[in-house]
Records
---
Amino acid sequence: MAKGDLPVLIGVGQSLSQWDGKAGPDDAPSPLSLMTDASKAAFADTGVPGIAGAIDTIAVVRIFEDSVRGAPHPHGHNTNLPGTLARETGTKPVRLIYETVGGQSAQALVNEFARRIHDGEVDAVLISGSEANRASKGARKHGVEINWADSSDAPYEDRGSGPMMLSREEIKHGLVAPAYFYGLFENAIAAREGRGRAAHRKAMAELFQPFTAVAAKNKYSQFPQEHSVEFLSTPSRENYEYADPFLKWFIAQDAVNQGAAAILVSSSKADELGVPQDKRIYLHGGGDAGDDLISLRPVLDRSWAMDIAISRALAQAGKSSAEIKHFDLYSCFPCAVFSAAAALGLKWETDKRPLTLTGGLPFFGGPGNNYSLHGIAEMAAALRKNKGDFGLVLANGGWMTKESAGVYSTTPPKTFTAAEPAAKAKTQVEVAIVSGDATLETFTVTHGKDGPERGIIFARFADGRRVIANNADAATLAVLREDASPVGRKVSVTAKDETATFVFS
């Protein structure tokens, strides 16, 4: 292992299955089978027959069932995904890693192992991950028995689920689903832009319509269908309301069977293996950042962590956003793309550069923590076709909580600079669950089968403290559901024990 080598991305692979249980158990995928297929595709993509024997490290992106504390394993538990992946791919790595929770994982692992390769710790790493939620849901719906139970005796580093990304106060007020958190961001952005519900839904639809066109042409898309702005922005049986202002197709779709993999090696190892020059992709810059709990963040209409991760990656690459030709921006909800565009100084309404290479999480598919590994795979393909261009991948975890960015090109950098340790937010808002008069800062309304269920708000007292409150009263919900944004209106908050309710003053 040579210290000071450039890290090189030499192979990428993806896998897809549309199996949903309707036709019985034959060919049912599992998380292991999907990442195995993707990994073997990545081996083949390198053009090097003996690449599997060179892998000294495997890092696996954490699957959904292992990401949520206490989550069931309805089809049996694979207790050592890195070890079983090594077995299935015929590799003999000396280190195995099971990454922590978060959609930032794929790019964060690239940033980490680029540094470790440059430092001479690692020569060749396989990064892989998958989700088989479509198979799981289909098997349970149709009463089909599938078995994912497996294990390996190989020792591995389990990085765990990481710190909680929800506070007690948030949970007690009903903030328990990603769409609810992102609804708070989305309505803050709408208020900043002076948009009511209908206008913002149209803006979200105009942002995402080109994503659907990309997804429709991507052979690895789980939902390859182009949609119109009218369909995306209009509530319907196929596009129902979930949490204001979101309709179904504004939200990442996790009912997928998708896997992806990437192989990163040292430049000397690439030379030793005889990797063709036209296969090589170089990381020019990386950036990582982590934000606070959402209720502690001073700003809700954009992402501080995105600002830092993107600016660090661009600065290391010595590039401006105007010099980036290709993007894959994490797109779990429109506000994530709006925030990334703001961080890039990019006018999404008029800029001709596509913001996704996959088609995005609602349309290509949202394979849990592993989505951005697909983005990296598509970036490699795009850059190989457009030699000398630069591309940026932005990966997002939590509720714009953990961000990782990378700038790539087929052109090798003169020198490599490792990404800095993840930046951490230093400024917080004080949360006070107390009674008093406040100004509504942002909101969402959760929906059930029978319609709107509960309004959840963030509001600020005159002294700057933030309060979380909710209300299920029909009259209050009606005000929150008016087309005009209620942000900026006065509310009266009543606190009891650890929760607060509100009414409009």
Note: The chain has 14 helices and 18 strands.
---
Amino acid sequence: MTEPAGHDLLKTGAALVTHADRGAVRVTGVERATWLQGLLSNDIEALAPGRGCYAAWLTPQGRMLTDAVVLAEDDALTVELPAPLVETLLRQLNAAIFAEDVTLADTSAEWRTLGVHGGRAAEVVARALTGSRPSQAALTVDHLATWTEYTHAPLDPFGRLIGDATYGVPGFRLRVRADDADLWLSRLRLAGATLTPADELEFARIESGRPQFLVDMDADTIPLEAGIEGRAISFTKGCYVGQEVIVRIVHRGGGRVVRKLVGLAIDGDCVPATRAGVKAEKGEIGRVTSSAWSPRLGAAVALAYVHRDSAEPGTTLHVACGGGEVVATVRAFPLS
């Protein structure tokens, strides 16, 4: 029997993905929340245990050092970061501790990250948890179906279960002990998930407009360019590093930045390469950052930075592809 393709799994099944590992920094100490509140762009102090948020850590010039997911536990905050940056960022985080009661520990090597994504994700995860200790009893399919992104709970015997919407469908990430990863893969497959290469689902991340740091965002990116301000920035919290630049752009500049990350639907069968040039009538106005073939749309899709004058949905552009150019149309997220 042929296993369903990734796009079918996301719609009506459960795709099991081995995600590229995120680094994990455990932050303890009585002043952990107020300390991170002054560094990150989202409202860390508002997080109750079991809740989390997406955030950015900025330079004083408003450009990104990294993105982060912050998870509040009873006695700690876990900050998930891009794995290749953890060593450098941990040094910078330690340098930002002065007299605060804060301790940092890099726990990245302890964990592996598995994902279950799709219409049956809650059902599969609940089934995989059957027989877990009493503290897991509340994690029924009906309860999991109510989770918002970054809601989380302890995972037996170790680790964390985290709500995830990377692909624009219901989903969960399981942060499990490295030694237990194979056990959890087997458990989730027995519960009904289908092992799926992550690159087969890249189209869904693009269609959902979810930029990835080190792919679609880097040290030159201002969050407003990437369109992540709705998820990553609190406009009601107190001061944080880089806030002045963000406030100036939003309140004095009307939110206008020179370039914007947009979604493109591309005519024909050609999938453009990363860094492929994007042109308007007046010449080159941007570059592709991610691309994939979308089996759902029957067309290639891409994320690209373009000049703000060409960022309106419906705008027709041209993208370098296969030694020539193809027509591409700017579309609103989620791409359709």
Note: The chain has two domains: 1-257, 258-336.
---
Amino acid sequence: MKVTVIDGQGGNIGKQLVKSIRDSFPDVCIRAVGTNSAATTNMIKGGADEGATGENAVIVASRSADLIIGPIGIIIPDALLGEVTPAMAKAVGESPAQKVLIPLNKCDVLIAGISNRSTSELLQDAMDKIRAIMKL
């Protein structure tokens, strides 16, 4: 299974996801794709096998991924303080890959029905979903 983790800004959420996936599935290949080089570097430090940065990297990785994981902003044009371009959001949204999105109420996007859960609680819930997908 090709797992792609996409993140922006500092890449902290992506780094935590990569670490958790690596701990649970040590043999899976994890591709880290950052909207900027700091995010990519941070995810590689978290244990990703390979990394790439920028709009074209998101587009190419989205085509070949089986599973895409990241904050919900990766499917919203101009999210993450403008780091997610419309082309990036379109590529992720149109990808046939299964997606596990972290519902963060940030950057002027408020998600109805999401309680004020901590980031660690959201990441744990995401990992529960990832484990279920990976065991298929």
Note: Helices lie at 12-24, 37-45, 55-64, 79-82, 86-94, 119-134.
---
Amino acid sequence: MKREKKQTDPVLEIIEKYGSQESNLIAILQDVQNEYKYLSEEALTLIAEKLGLSTAKVYSVATFYENFSLEAKGKHIIRICTGTACHVRKSQPIYDALRQELGLTGKKKTSPDGLFTLETVACLGACGLAPVMTLDGEVHPKMTPDGACALVDEVRAKEGKSI
């Protein structure tokens, strides 16, 4: 008896896990993003092909939901709260300082070295600690631009990278 070769491509394995029905599209996109930290053009095209959908349809779903990213994310994720309490307590200068520290230009969110991704979020739920940022999910309260840059420097030192 001949054994079928198991698919080794993680995207194909994820599609196989859920089945090729359009109703599984969001779950498939979520798992692919968990695997790669973003949704590549190649992955979106493969998903469309295997589910019998147009690439435009898959792309429109991936861009509709804010939690999906079409850009590769860094190893470390920094989120700056832009909610009212944080905004009033000067979260914007923290964001600006980090963009400069990380060498981000234009619409880029990920540092050129691939180490950091900088994102904004509407609320982190810690208004009494404003301004707040998270680094890899760890909350850092009453943040300052200098404090945020110091955290980045600490991570770089641990990773063996410096500017």
Note: Residues 10-64 form one domain.
